[in-house]
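Box 3.1 — From sequence to structure: NADH-quinone oxidoreductase subunit K
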Amino acid sequence: MEGNSFIQAVPLEYFIILCSVLFCLGVLGVLVRKNAIIILGCVELMLNSVNLLLAAFSSYKGDGNGQILVFFIMVVAAAEVAVGLAIIAMMYRNTKSVDISIFNKLRG
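Predicted structure (token representation):
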């Protein structure tokens, strides 16, 4: 239990507040911005805030299963970034812009 004493010294409510603020900033960035790269970064910010909260809950409970779940979520996030950047690269190659309003022109 000695390994968790540093994390448990910070109250759990602080982690909840921090992760809520980070998640709200990510949602705000997705809703407001039009640059596809920034939107992808905001989605990653939301995902990482959930990961941080899951790791904090896991640490406070003293169970490692939540931290293992965080690892698998990070693997899925890495695959999501690879696919997202590939889509953005193809969009930039075709339109010379990464503005998401261009996607309206792709309707068939």
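Summary of the box: The two ends are 59 Å apart (CA to CA).
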